[in-house]
Amino acid sequence: MHVVWELIVTFIEVSMTAGFVLYVLQDHLKTGRSNTMLGAAVIVSMISILDTAFSNTISYLLPFDYTTLTGMVWLLIAYAAISYATEEPRDRVLFLLFLSMNVLLLSRSTTLLIYHVISPELLQGEYTWMDIAGYGIPNIFITSGCAYITSRYYQKLRFIHTSSNHLYLVPLFFYFLAAFQINLYPVDEYVFVLFMKVIVILCAFMTYSQMIQAVINAAKAVQEAEFHKQLSYQLNIENTRISELESHAEEIRHIRHDRRQHVQVLRGLLEHEDIQKALEYLADYEQSMAEAIKPSLCENFVADTLCRRYAALAEQSDIHLEITVAFPQNTGIAGSDIAIILGNLWENAITAALDCTDAKRFICLWIQTQKDKVLIRMQNGYVGEIHFEEDKFYSTKKGRIDREGVGIRSIRAVAEKYGGLAEFTYTDDTFTASVVLYISAE
Asked: Transmembrane stretches, by residue range (predicted)?
């Protein structure tokens, strides 16, 4: 009969462990809750039966705690199932799974400590019906509380859209640290080992909370830096606009000052009936006026200001430019978003082109507005290596090596905001950025 009680206890533990993970991921399931619950029930039942069978057949052959090994096998099964049911990144799935195993160790160790305090005899012998409550009640309370707290931190971690690569190594380390303690101490110190397991896992959870909070704070710092960068773009645009207005006002003053002289010359030519010279003089005057006033690249003020400003910087650095811009003023796209996309594209392109030889020192910008979308493509030459991994480009700027480029991430975020996309491709010597923004037809 003890096998039945052991099976029930195992089923409770496996169910609560699965419930821990599903509770945290409940809003990110792609298979639907009903299908997920059905699949989870099948897997939980299978693991419970196999684990019970394993413990009652060959566990006596192992000179150490067999649950550590079996736990890793069940972990692989759970990883495959969760990866199928969600679209969460691998590192986050592993983080939750290792965390759930920490919770299971905590609840088991708590039960055994309670047994030692109440009645040490319960630690010996086969499973009984009392173990259903002895293991089940602490497991339910501990797992439920940990699931609630973990869910709150996980949502914050997921919301900030930051990289959490290798974060799962921390709970994995604490799991092995706590699990293998039982094999490092004499049998007569078993209670001490249980106590140390509880202490280690509690310290682990404190570490997790501080670690995740540190990641969140770092992400917030990056977001604030990006926000200040956007403000800087806006300020530069306004400063450029003021400079252009001042320059335009100065041109108007010169035109008014010179107008009388031009009128006197034309009057003299006409009085002498020298029509041909008057026409030639007027043509020269019109040409000089056209050269003095720089034409706009497009109707959109933000796009025009940024493109002309960065184009001037590129020309000063002997970068060959090809610019075709068709961007109306009213597209429904916020000026700050236009500044983020074009500002980052221009900065990245100029920075890369500056390192090229004369033959590859070029930038080509093409912007076309269609009925419901804006198409942006920028190409530039580059030399060196591109740091690309898992659909992410990593910055090559000093101090940011091996960190995802903020500019590219910002461009993608704006594109997604307007239901579009941003793609970045490269050959041996040319980098291409393509952005699609969907707009409301007017």
From this structure: 6-25, 37-54, 66-86, 93-115, 135-154, 166-184, 190-208
| Residue 441 domain flag | no
Mean confidence (pLDDT) of the chain: 76
Structural domain including 223 reads 1-292
Q: Residues with Cβ < 8 Å from 290, sequence gap 6 or more?
A: none
Contact of 433 with 385, CB cutoff 8 Å: no
Q: Does residue 442 sit within a domain?
A: no
The b/e string for 226-241 (b: 16+ C-beta within 10 A; e otherwise) is beebbeebbeebeeee
Q: Position of tokens 């390192």? A: 355
Among 94, 55, 47, 99, smallest CA distance to 74 is for 47
Q: Which residues contact 116 (CB under 8 A, 6 or more apart)?
A: 123, 191, 194
Looking up residue 366, the CATH number of its domain turns out to be 3.30.565.10
DSSP state for residue 29 in the 8-state scheme: B
Alpha-carbon gap, residue 70 to 182, rounded angstroms: 16
Whether 185 contacts 242, CB under 8 Å: no
Residue 425 pLDDT more than 70?
Answer: yes
- How many CA atoms lie within 13 Å of 192's alpha carbon, on the beta-carbon side? 7
DSSP single-letter state for residue 378: E
pLDDT above 70: residue 284? yes
Neighbours of 7 (CB within 10 A): 19
Q: Poorest-confidence range of 109-123, 140-154, 227-241?
A: 227-241
Do residue 118 and residue 224 come from a single domain?
A: yes
182-238 confidence digits (pLDDT tens):
555 554 556 666 677 777 777 777 777 777 777 777 777 777 777 677 667 666 755
Residue 264 belongs to a domain: yes
Portion of the chain with pLDDT greater than 90, in percent? 10
pLDDT of residue 400: 43
The pTM of the whole model exceeds 0.70: no
What long-range pairs does 94-99 form, CB within 8 A, spacing at least 24?
94/168, 94/172, 95/164, 95/167, 95/168, 95/171, 96/20, 96/21, 96/24, 96/25, 96/150, 96/154, 97/21, 97/168, 98/168, 98/171, 98/172, 98/175, 99/20, 99/146, 99/150, 99/171, 99/208
Number of structural domains the chain divides into? 2
